[in-house]
Amino acid sequence: xxxxxxxxxxxxxxxxLLSTSLFTLFTAKAISPTQPVVxxxxxxxxxxxxxxxxxxxxxxxxxxxxINLLAIVGIYILLTRGQVTAIIGATLFLLLSLTARQVIxxxxxxxxxxxxxxxxxxxxxxxxxxxxxxxxGVATPYITETLVTKDEVVPESLIRLLLRPYQPYLQDVIxxxxxxxxxxxxxxxxxxxxxxxxGLSEEQxxxxxxxxxQQLTQNKPSTENIVTIITEVINNKIRLYSRAxxxxxxxxxxxLAIIATRIAAAWLAQPPLLLIALLIWAARKINLFKLLxxxxxxxxxxx
Length: 303
Known about the structure:
mainly alpha
């Protein structure tokens, strides 16, 4: 067996073993991601998995690349017991991973000098998007059930946090300050409407004025009430839409996951890039990878 084929077998075996470990943790119901040790293990395994998948897609042959991707998809579907959402996520992952391979190979072949960031950056973003849909394939049934049954899908604390920068504007809208002259006229009219206050001294009228002012302002709406109303409206809309469109809800969840990871991919790709550079450096030291200097003929059309 040729050394290159042996290396491809080794990379494939390592990727599949890592994929099995990662997907087992993802799908294990007895394991809670909120546990610090489990969460740390998931993050480390995920970073290694993304890096090894990117390296495999860049360096192994076409046949081994298909073996890798199809085996990953098969392991994932097997561990998720063939759920419909898992199959959808696996299909999207396969398409995104093939796109990542094409992008990485194009960068690898077109560059004059090798650069880890330039070669892998765009491909890693597609791999991260594929990883997100894999995760949604497992989480979508639980998310859909939560949307239908839970009263508070979107917590009020989140809405309050999002609206905090706009709180001064909301306060101006829901509780505009009245001019002093209007306030005085309102209170004077209120006093005149009460027969019991006729003949009172000035001090007693001032006391009534303070009492009436408190009555006018005690029911004044606040931003806290507005946040509660907005939260209730959002949660009601989500519940109604989820119950009326049970088949469309998973598709919406997948699209939302892809869009969110696409927006955040520029930041999420940085740790895998650093780890890939470290892994390639270490692999070159043990002669697993080689950096070759090649001379190629370039065709140029001239007049």
